[in-house]
Every structure is written in structure tokens, then in C-alpha cells.
Specification:
Number of helices: 9
Low-confidence stretches: none
Order of helices and strands: EEEHEHEHHHEHEHEEHHEE
Shape: globular
CATH topology of the largest domain: Rossmann fold
Number of domains: 2
Number of strands: 11
Mean pLDDT: 93
Distance between the termini: 43 Å
Largest sheet: 6 strands, mixed
Strand order of the largest sheet: 5-6-7-3-8-9
Strand content: 25-35%
Helix content: 25-40%
Bound molecules: adenosine-5'-triphosphate
CATH architecture of the largest domain: 3-Layer(aba) Sandwich
Structural class: alpha/beta
Length: 256
């Protein structure tokens, strides 16, 4: 397993947020963590990264990330947070190049290869035309793709993405999800993403983990997890669930 979590407990501000969470993500697969607001999805990603005090076992690419220096960690796993602090005035290209930092020697400069990799990632995300633009002159969706670009420039084997598509139009949602899937297939990338769009989650992920109240309420193939009853119970929403052309579930809201 590339990401293995067993019996994870996390408390924030003295309150339990994750309770006995277990998760196994095989190498080269894609797991989407779904669940209602406040269920603990972002907390789970941050705990997997080793950024939070916790009890239980976590191994990423065979390592306990909390024991590693940030630079070592950044060579194993890339993380695209939901709302990162973006340095004001920095250009899109320079921000993407930050993804290469773990490979640049201390007091050294980036190599031509680092710049090529940053340029290629921007190209794949349709951002080349914005390369010289300061980050604070971008739209919300453009910013979200730049954060993903920085993570992809790290060229790690594990990718943790917190809500990578929330600010994107439907075309860019498809572009980003297809790109991640392509990388998964071509480079064997292991992907864990939180995501609110349940149909999108079901279309791309191999497995879904439904978190509710800090616990795993269901886990398995999209068709097993995305049931009308589970959505009603954990999201308090009424939906129709129909099998799509490829058999994966498609959800639509049911008007009262
Ligand atoms: N630093 C903190 N101190 C105390 N409580 C926190 C802290 N950070 C998050 N929480 C709480 O932990 C719970 C889980 O938060 P988390 O951000 O992981 O949820 P989420 O499932 O990602 O939610 P959303 O879908 O709204 O993004 C929430 O109830 C939140 O209020």
C-alpha cells in the first residue's frame, strides 16, 4: 500500500475530529475522500502529510512523513491545499518552480531541467499564457490550477489534493481530472483527493471513502458507496442515483 492509515485519531482545539480512521490506497490507484462539510476530510489529508499531532499508524510510500524533514517529505508526496497562502507579487512561473525546491541544492539555483519541467506542467494545465502574471492577478479557477501545477512540478509518486476542482468550470474540471488520471496511468501516481462533487468522484476514483463525523462511514467502489440511502443519511440530501454509460453512478438532486 502506498498510503496506509490505521486507527487514526486526531484532536484539534481539544475536540476529536478524526476517530479510528483507516484507509489503504494501493500504489497507482485513486481514492476520493468524500463527506459533508466538517467531516474531517482536509484534516485527514493534513494528518497523512505528517502535519498534525495524531495517534495511530500512517505510512506514505513506506515512510512516516512526520519523522522526515520538509525537503525529504516533499520528494515523496505533493500536496495541493484547499486555500494556500499565495505569495503576493510572485509570478505563476516562479510559483510553479517552487515545486522543484526539494531538488535544488541549498544556496543553489534551479537547473534548466527544473525550468523545463515547470514550463511543461504549465502547458499541460493550459497556463502557459499566464506564466508571467502575478498570482494576485488571477481568477479563482486560474489560481487553483496554479496550485496544482506547483504540486505536479514536484514529480512525486504520491499526490494529495484537497478539493482540486471546486473553483473550476466544467471544461477545466474535466481537463484537471483527465490529466491526473493520465499521470496515474503513465507514471503510476497514487492519488488521494477530497472532493465535493460526488458524481465526479465516482467517475474518476477507484475507491471512495465516505467520512462522516470524523469516522469512516463507508468505503469501497463508487457504486457501493454512492447509494441513495448513504447520501440521505450522511448529507441529509435526497438524490437519484442512476448507473452511467460505464456503470459508474450518476447523482442528481431530487426536488421535494
Ligand atoms: N484548528 C482547528 N481547531 C479546532 N477545530 C478545527 C480546526 N481545524 C478544523 N477544525 C474542525 O475540524 C472539523 C473538520 O474540519 P475539516 O476542515 O477537516 O473538514 P472537511 O471535511 O474538510 O470540511 P469541508 O467540506 O467544509 O471543507 C470541523 O468541525 C472544523 O471546524
Amino acid at each position: 500500500m502506498t498510503v496506509a492509515v490505521r486507527g487514526l485519531d486526531v484532536a484539534l482545539g481539544g475536540r476529536p475530529v478524526l476517530k479510528g480512521v483507516s484507509l489503504e490506497v494501493p500504489a497507482g490507484s485513486w481514492t476520493a475522500v468524500i463527506g459533508p462539510n466538517g467531516a474531517g476530510k482536509s484534516t485527514l489529508l493534513r494528518a497523512v502529510l505528517g502535519l498534525l499531532p495524531c495517534a495511530g499508524e500512517i505510512a506514505v510510500a513506506g515512510a512516516d512523513l512526520s519523522a522526515l524533514k520538509p525537503r525529504q517529505r516533499a520528494r515523496l508526496v505533493a500536496y495541493a491545499p484547499q486555500s494556500p497562502n499565495l505569495p503576493v507579487g510572485m509570478t505563476v512561473f516562479d510559483y510553479t518552480l517552487l515545486g522543484r525546491s526539494p531538488y535544488i541544492p541549498h544556496l543553489g539555483r534551479e537547473s534548466a531541467r527544473d525550468r523545463t519541467i515547470a514550463g511543461e506542467v504549465l502547458d499541460r494545465l493550459d497556463l502557459t499564457g499566464l506564466a508571467d502574471r502575478p498570482l494576485d492577478h488571477l481568477s479563482g479557477g486560474e489560481r487553483q490550477r496554479v496550485v496544482l501545477a506547483r504540486a505536479l512540478a514536484q514529480q512525486t509518486s504520491v499526490l494529495l489534493l484537497d478539493e482540486p476542482t471546486t473553483a473550476l468550470d466544467i471544461g477545466h474540471q474535466q481537463q484537471v481530472m483527465e490529466l491526473i488520471d493520465q499521470l496515474r496511468l503513465s507514471d503510476g501516481l497514487t492519488v488521494v483527493t477530497t472532493i465535493h462533487d460526488l458524481t465526479l468522484a465516482g467517475q474518476y476514483a477507484d475507491d471512495l471513502v465516505l467520512l462522516s463525523g470524523g469516522r469512516v462511514a463507508a468505503a469501497g467502489a463508487p457504486g457501493e458507496v454512492l447509494t441513495r440511502a448513504a447520501i440521505q443519511e450522511h448529507f441529509d440530501a435526497r438524490v437519484h442515483v442512476l448507473p452511467g454509460p460505464d456503470g459508474r453512478p450518476l447523482l442528481s438532486l431530487e426536488r421535494p
